[in-house]
Amino acid sequence: GSGYMKVIISGRHLEVTEPIKKYAEEKIGRVKKYFENIIEIDITLSVEHSKTEGDIHKVDVLLFGNGTKIKVNMEDKDLYAAIDKATDILERQVRKHKEKLKDHNKKGSH
Question: 0.70 cut: is pTM over it?
């Protein structure tokens, strides 16, 4: 039905294992309950080696909604933590976007 949302997860310099994939899909898929018009979510997971910091994991999320594009970039030493943080920010942005839509539809709001 119209509830279908595509989640694409790819890795750069990083193997996306089944557990990682499941985790990212479940976490980021939660956003759906705030915003029904999501068409696709692209998630790119990458790792950068820094001499001083060790491995830094990056999560880039691109959400395509109904005429909406929301982009979130997050990094953390821990990949799972980076996914968590990215999800939090994405949820916040989606909620904010939804509020804007609601206001837009209310006549007489400034």
Answer: yes
